[in-house]
Amino acid sequence: MKYVKYSKYVADPFDGLSAEDLLQLLGDYLLESGFNQDAYGFYEMDRAQTMEELHQELLKALRDQGLIPKELLDQLLRRAENYQNSSLRELIDKLLERLSEEGYITIDQPPQGRKELPEGGPAQTDESRQGKVKFELTDKALDFLGFKTLKDLLASLGKSSFGRHDTREQATGIESHGATRPYQFGDTLNLDVNATLFSAIRRHGLSLPLELDYRDLQVRQCEYQSSCATVLLLDCSHSMILYGEDRFTPAKRVALALTHLIRTQFPGDTLHLVLFHDAAEEVPLPELARVKVGPYYTNTREGLRLAQRILSRQRKDMRQIVMITDGKPSALTLADGRIYKNAFGLDPLVVSETLHEVARCRRNGILINTFMLASDYGLISFVQKVTEICQGKAYFTTPYTLGQYLLMDYMQKKIKHIH
């Protein structure tokens, strides 16, 4: 005889958490920029993140949000030394597996079995290597983090209308927003039927058949919509995490949000990311989450030069540089490749060469909008000079309002653009 054994159903306390919820809980850790590292220690720009770190961060986030059931939390507090074999650890491991199965992280599996150390030391077991399992965020995860950041920023702005960049020029096109005018050779034949028929009736009277003439044709005007090429110039010098405030992580979040906005709402636009420190480098957008600050100076001129080279390859009506920084220029790349540094900032040589580069941007038709995360007197004076030369705009903001200012500026495009 066949027997069926029943056992008590034990619900998973984390069943209600989706992979997106988990990713949101881990957002601060995944986009961490070095603020919590030793300020005088060794900086590793591409430091790989481990599954053990991810596990501990998720445990901390669940505990801080009060999502761990009381009985499991009591077990954790009473038997912290036995956590490795606890049911809570198994539950959190399942949550991390869900992130991997749904394509938000990729896990670099270590070799199986035992492995002798190179120096002939004791064997290293799978358990001892567990903390060395690496993971990486996927493009799907970055896209979700960008979407959530954009959604949060737009919610704080109130009503904001999406759309393409509208300029002050009038032209014929598909969408009708402007007044009607007579058709001219070369216009898109976006006919205003009522105005065209009225013109013919006014000339010939109401008779059939109605005679239409070339001069009767009336077309609707619409706003001339242009595409924009943007280089986000991001300061990753050491000052971005000094003085008890993390300025770099909010800047990374804004970059992710701007990437998602352009990809979904302005598909004709382009966005490139340039980091500047002692030198400058272009970083692929998928690598943005892994970027951290370093013990570097602020070579603003080199960042502007690289941004110009990128924009020179873009065939767009509008080209702009969006610069996010909190420090004065303190480094300069000399003609022989050496880097001249002055930690005090506002060195006459560094400032003059940087302003010459700003003027070169202006001559090339490239606008510079500057978002400042500091407001000391010397920095204000420098930024005012940059704004005067390039006829752009300067925003003195904080890490908490940076995204609001930047996205509103990008969407509304309240800049003077000369065709």
Write the layout of secondary structure elements.
Blueprint: H1 19-25, H2 27-30, E1 49-50, H3 51-64, H4 70-78, H5 87-101, E2 105-108, E3 134-137, H6 139-157, E4 165-171, E5 180-182, H7 193-204, E6 218-220, E7 222-226, E8 228-235, H8 248-265, E9 270-276, E10 280-283, H9 300-312, E11 318-325, E12 331-333, E13 339-341, H10 348-363, E14 367-372, H11 377-390, E15 393-396, H12 402-412
Parallel strand pairs: 8-9, 8-11, 11-14, 14-15
Antiparallel strand pairs: 1-3, 2-3, 4-7, 5-6, 9-10, 12-13
Helix pairs in contact: 6-8, 6-12, 8-12, 9-10, 10-11
Describe the structure in your own words.
The chain is of the alpha/beta class and 419 residues long. The protein folds into three domains: 19-112 and 122-137, no CATH class; 143-164 and 225-412, Rossmann fold (3-Layer(aba) Sandwich); 179-220, no CATH class. 36% of the residues lie in helices and 17% in strands. It contains twelve helices and 15 strands. The strands form five sheets. Strands 10-9-8-11-14-15 form a six-stranded mixed beta sheet, with helices on both faces. It has a three-stranded antiparallel beta sheet with strand order 1-3-2. Strands 4-7 form a two-stranded antiparallel sheet. Helix 6 (139-157) packs across helix 8 and helix 8 packs parallel to helix 12. The longest helix has 19 residues, at 139-157. It is flat. Residues 38-43, 113-129, 159-177 and 414-419 have low confidence and may be disordered.
